[in-house]
Amino acid sequence: MIFMVDEVIGDSGGTELLHELVKISKRLKLDKHFKLKIIASDASIAGKDVIRQHLSKQEPSPAKILYRQVVDKTIEAKPLSIQQAQVKMGFYKLDATLINANTFPASELVLSYKVGVEMVAIDDKGDTITSSETIIQSQAWILQDIFKLLGDKSRKGQIIVYIQNIKRLNQLINALKEQIPPSPFLKGGNELSAFEEFQDYLQIHSSISDEARQKIHQHKNAVKVIFMTSSASRGITFARVRHILIEVPKFQIENNLMEIVQTVYRGRGGETDEERALEKQTRWITFYLHDSIRYADSAQQAERYQRGISGLMNMILLVRAALKTRIAGYGDIGAKRDLRIIPVGGKHIDSVGASLLTSTAQLLTEMKREIRRSYDDAKAGQADYDNSLAKLRQDVRTIFVRTQTRVANETLKKINTYYESFAQRAQQSLYDVLTHDFEPEFYVDGDIFTVPIATSEERVDISRDMLMAAKAERLVERMQGHAKNSNYTNNLRTALTKMAKEIEKMQQASEDTSRSQDIYSQNTSGGQYLSIPLPVFFKPEIFRQYFRHDSETLIYETETVAGDSFRDALGNYLYLLYQLVGKLPLDGGYESFPFLLFRCENLTVIRQQRFDRRYLFSSTAFNLINLVLSQTEQL
Fold this sequence. Notes:
The protein has 635 residues and is α/β, with parallel strands linked by helices.
């Protein structure tokens, strides 16, 4: 009997699943009745010590970059090594065979780096003085290189373009379609035919439909360019790839560095003689790093420029060392000393249930993603923009507009007294802030103040007139119709079906009782937290003014094309720190200050491990300096 867990490190729940398999096999005594094998595989696993540190414990942990000195090069640098060892899984010590391959599907690998910094001056109001688009600047290199490769008729093989942002990926595709034909980068201007999906290129990301996924497998060997995010960097290979263009993200460095290493290996798995011959040729990888540095005066300019350049160079060092570790068994940073740089993802399990409001929030998010994708497709000339989903989303929001989220906690009641107390103590010293007895226990993450919440209540008050209007507008039928659209993702179709049933139940109950529907639910499952921006404590009047219904800033926020609210910005910031689920409120219609109520079952564990003595410095620059100084030879 064989169990296999693939991408055991790439998936946040992989370690938990592996431990559960061991528990089940021991409880059922499967090894007494079968010759039992449990296989755990991942391209990110490298070394006995990494396996023991990451896989032996189930406890949640943040993503990290592990570094190790090379102990025995005769083993760790082998193209193929097989070791016998004991690995602890919970209470069990198991005999294990560790198989590691250090190789790459090419005879030669050429690495190139294109690095740029854009200096942007800002005035006293926070507006940029220079008019420049970071997205356009960073993508200009990629566009030019794609045109150059497509215009070279002697070139063979495919091109992978990796950008870890769906919106930026779509912008790049649209820019290509607008310039083909004619192309200013090609002599003659008409050497390329129209750039069509599934004929000339593929795009692979989390928002594609099942129908598109099937077509990807049908056309993956025929297209010229494959555009992908990290969701495509696993589970699918393109054996004909010769050029890989990677835009290095500047967020969630640990996870994205791991995904970059995975993406580089997408060009493997040749099945035909032609594909196997390509693996014996040269492969080219180009990394694109671009940063926009803002400064208010000349005194800041030099210091911020040096800091920005240092950050980009640190990223180049980490990318190069991590890639060399995976290919050759070890890399180097600083002096010619052997180091193993191994990025691994975080470990956590989201086991909390969804309430009516959190389900509604998820539906609105999925609809927003699909609307943006539909708009991008229409802009690129691939389809006509369908406004019906946007209208449906607005109708769903209208139904749940009168919602209340109540926190059974003294924190919000004391928020006014916190203003004065927090500001006064902060002006005295950090010690006065840390020793003050705020109730309840609190955490400070950068500019965010977070408190645990024992109990919260959700109340949705939906008038009978609103439900009858929704029935007259055939809202349920429209949702069911959209749920059958095969061009939508599974997540959206499932969410539409579920919400259609909920609204149908409320309409029926309203007809039976001739009353409005007051839906009430209470959450006491634990793992709930309330986050408030720290500036609220120092300048509460500014936030009150901002969230006035007639304030110019709030009107501008609601009228922008993106429609991103303060709530969205707060949620995105917190997502960089923790894995959030069930974010409330639904909209950013705050009365006096912004907040976010969310659930995260492993927040305290992640914080403890983040400030563990092994991870003293969160700065990439500090960590790289420590790596260099830890070497025994003098630089």
